[in-house]
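User: Look at the shape:
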Amino acid sequence: MSSLIRWEPFHEIEEVTDRLGRVLDRTLRRAFGRESLIPADWAPAVDISETDKEYVIKAELPEVAKDDVRVAIQDDMLVIRGERRAEKEEKGRRYHRIERSYGTFARSFGIPEDADPAKITAEFRDGILDVHLPKTTEVKKRTIEVKVS
């Protein structure tokens, strides 16, 4: 006897909409130089907060090993990269649904003018990455002189 599987059309529409949103988001960010050119399989959720002394980026990275996370400054951007590895298939185990995303990820954020990227620190604990970007008292003003002909 076979079992019946309930079809939920709205769930499938929601999945397609989410995937399309992620693709468009990545495409638009790349077009405006806000994202790494390396395509990502998923993007972790982040919170960005600010105090008088620093900016804090908190990223959710469940089941990501500390050694699989990289934080770097590239072209005035803070870049967080990594990978969440899929579980190995076990004999005798059948999956009925897989909703979690696996693979590489990359998130990029512009560095505010009043931040000091030379003093950035990061800590990884319990699947949460905290990146601390201290503020500086010296705001770097960027002035470019253009000759008019």
Notes: The first strand starts at residue 46 and ends at 50.
